[in-house]
Amino acid sequence: LISSATKSLRMETEILEKKLQDAQMKLAEKDGDKEKEIQSLKRLISELEFQLTMEKNNNESFLDKLRKEMKHKSDELEKLTQEKTQLIHSLSQVQEENSLLQETVRRECEERCGLTAALSRAREQVLELRRLSGTFP
Asked: Which residues form a coiled coil (predicted)?
Protein backbone atom coordinates (compact mmCIF):
# COMPACT_ATOMS: atom_id res chain seq x y z
CA LEU A 1 0.00 0.00 0.00
CA ILE A 2 2.81 2.36 0.94
CA SER A 3 4.73 1.38 -2.12
CA SER A 4 1.71 1.94 -4.29
CA ALA A 5 1.00 5.32 -2.63
CA THR A 6 4.66 6.33 -2.99
CA LYS A 7 4.63 5.32 -6.60
CA SER A 8 1.43 7.24 -7.15
CA LEU A 9 2.86 10.30 -5.40
CA ARG A 10 6.06 10.08 -7.46
CA MET A 11 4.06 9.90 -10.65
CA GLU A 12 1.95 12.83 -9.52
CA THR A 13 5.13 14.69 -8.55
CA GLU A 14 6.63 13.99 -11.98
CA ILE A 15 3.45 15.18 -13.67
CA LEU A 16 3.42 18.31 -11.51
CA GLU A 17 7.14 18.89 -12.18
CA LYS A 18 6.50 18.52 -15.91
CA LYS A 19 3.57 20.95 -15.66
CA LEU A 20 5.81 23.29 -13.67
CA GLN A 21 8.53 23.06 -16.33
CA ASP A 22 5.96 23.68 -19.08
CA ALA A 23 4.55 26.63 -17.16
CA GLN A 24 8.08 28.00 -16.60
CA MET A 25 8.86 27.58 -20.32
CA LYS A 26 5.62 29.35 -21.28
CA LEU A 27 6.39 32.09 -18.75
CA ALA A 28 9.93 32.43 -20.14
CA GLU A 29 8.47 32.60 -23.69
CA LYS A 30 5.97 35.24 -22.59
CA ASP A 31 8.74 37.17 -20.85
CA GLY A 32 10.82 36.94 -24.05
CA ASP A 33 7.85 38.09 -26.14
CA LYS A 34 7.20 40.95 -23.71
CA GLU A 35 10.87 41.94 -23.80
CA LYS A 36 10.78 41.90 -27.62
CA GLU A 37 7.60 43.99 -27.55
CA ILE A 38 9.19 46.41 -25.07
CA GLN A 39 12.27 46.74 -27.31
CA SER A 40 10.03 47.22 -30.35
CA LEU A 41 8.04 49.91 -28.53
CA LYS A 42 11.25 51.61 -27.39
CA ARG A 43 12.46 51.69 -31.03
CA LEU A 44 9.10 53.04 -32.13
CA ILE A 45 9.22 55.73 -29.42
CA SER A 46 12.77 56.66 -30.49
CA GLU A 47 11.67 56.90 -34.13
CA LEU A 48 8.63 58.99 -33.22
CA GLU A 49 10.74 61.28 -31.02
CA PHE A 50 13.19 61.70 -33.90
CA GLN A 51 10.33 62.48 -36.31
CA LEU A 52 8.90 64.94 -33.79
CA THR A 53 12.29 66.64 -33.47
CA MET A 54 12.60 66.82 -37.26
CA GLU A 55 9.08 68.26 -37.55
CA LYS A 56 9.86 70.83 -34.86
CA ASN A 57 13.05 71.82 -36.70
CA ASN A 58 11.18 72.02 -40.02
CA ASN A 59 8.43 74.10 -38.42
CA GLU A 60 10.96 76.44 -36.80
CA SER A 61 12.80 76.78 -40.11
CA PHE A 62 9.52 77.46 -41.90
CA LEU A 63 8.52 80.01 -39.25
CA ASP A 64 11.91 81.72 -39.58
CA LYS A 65 11.44 81.93 -43.35
CA LEU A 66 7.94 83.33 -42.87
CA ARG A 67 9.21 85.88 -40.34
CA LYS A 68 11.98 86.98 -42.72
CA GLU A 69 9.54 87.21 -45.62
CA MET A 70 7.09 89.16 -43.46
CA LYS A 71 9.89 91.54 -42.39
CA HIS A 72 10.92 91.96 -46.03
CA LYS A 73 7.31 92.63 -47.09
CA SER A 74 6.87 95.04 -44.19
CA ASP A 75 10.03 96.94 -45.18
CA GLU A 76 8.89 96.95 -48.80
CA LEU A 77 5.46 98.24 -47.78
CA GLU A 78 7.05 100.98 -45.67
CA LYS A 79 9.28 101.98 -48.60
CA LEU A 80 6.32 102.03 -50.99
CA THR A 81 4.29 104.06 -48.49
CA GLN A 82 7.12 106.61 -48.26
CA GLU A 83 7.36 106.73 -52.08
CA LYS A 84 3.58 107.22 -52.28
CA THR A 85 3.74 110.05 -49.75
CA GLN A 86 6.60 111.63 -51.68
CA LEU A 87 4.71 111.26 -54.99
CA ILE A 88 1.58 112.82 -53.44
CA HIS A 89 3.70 115.71 -52.20
CA SER A 90 5.34 116.08 -55.63
CA LEU A 91 1.93 115.92 -57.32
CA SER A 92 0.65 118.62 -54.99
CA GLN A 93 3.64 120.82 -55.84
CA VAL A 94 3.19 120.20 -59.57
CA GLN A 95 -0.53 121.01 -59.32
CA GLU A 96 0.31 124.22 -57.47
CA GLU A 97 2.90 125.13 -60.10
CA ASN A 98 0.43 124.23 -62.85
CA SER A 99 -2.22 126.49 -61.30
CA LEU A 100 0.33 129.30 -61.00
CA LEU A 101 1.39 128.84 -64.62
CA GLN A 102 -2.24 128.77 -65.80
CA GLU A 103 -2.91 131.99 -63.90
CA THR A 104 0.23 133.55 -65.39
CA VAL A 105 -0.81 132.47 -68.91
CA ARG A 106 -4.31 133.85 -68.33
CA ARG A 107 -2.92 137.22 -67.19
CA GLU A 108 -0.46 137.32 -70.08
CA CYS A 109 -3.28 136.52 -72.52
CA GLU A 110 -5.39 139.31 -71.03
CA GLU A 111 -2.39 141.63 -71.25
CA ARG A 112 -1.74 140.53 -74.85
CA CYS A 113 -5.39 141.14 -75.71
CA GLY A 114 -5.13 144.59 -74.11
CA LEU A 115 -1.88 145.30 -76.00
CA THR A 116 -3.39 144.03 -79.25
CA ALA A 117 -6.40 146.31 -78.73
CA ALA A 118 -4.10 149.24 -77.88
CA LEU A 119 -1.96 148.48 -80.98
CA SER A 120 -5.09 148.40 -83.14
CA ARG A 121 -6.19 151.76 -81.70
CA ALA A 122 -2.71 153.16 -82.23
CA ARG A 123 -2.73 151.96 -85.87
CA GLU A 124 -6.11 153.51 -86.40
CA GLN A 125 -4.83 156.74 -84.89
CA VAL A 126 -1.70 156.61 -87.08
CA LEU A 127 -3.83 155.97 -90.17
CA GLU A 128 -6.14 158.77 -89.13
CA LEU A 129 -3.17 161.06 -88.59
CA ARG A 130 -1.70 160.10 -91.97
CA ARG A 131 -4.98 160.77 -93.60
CA LEU A 132 -5.32 164.06 -91.87
CA SER A 133 -1.71 165.02 -92.53
CA GLY A 134 -2.15 164.11 -96.17
CA THR A 135 -4.79 166.80 -96.49
CA PHE A 136 -2.67 169.36 -94.62
CA PRO A 137 0.79 169.80 -96.02
From this structure: 6-111
For the stretch 25-58, what's the b/e string if a residue is b when 16 or more beta carbons lie within 10 angstroms of its beta carbon?
eeeeeeeeeeeeeeeeeeeeeeeeeeeeeeeeee
pLDDT, tens only, 28-56: 999 999 999 999 999 999 999 999 999 99
Q: Is the dihedral of CA 40, 42, 45, 47 positive or negative?
A: negative
Residue 26: closest CA among 14, 15, 38, 34: 34
- Rounded distance, CA 107 to CA 95, Å? 18
- At residue 136, the pLDDT reads 59
CA–CA separation, 57 and 54 (whole Å): 5
Give the model's confidence band at 137: pLDDT under 50 very low, under 70 low, under 90 confident, else very high. low
Sign, CA torsion 61/63/64/70: positive
This model's pTM is above 0.70: no
- Which DSSP state fits 136? -
Q: Provide the residue ranges of all domains of the chain, joining segments of one domain with +.
A: 1-102
Mean pLDDT of the residues in the chain = 95
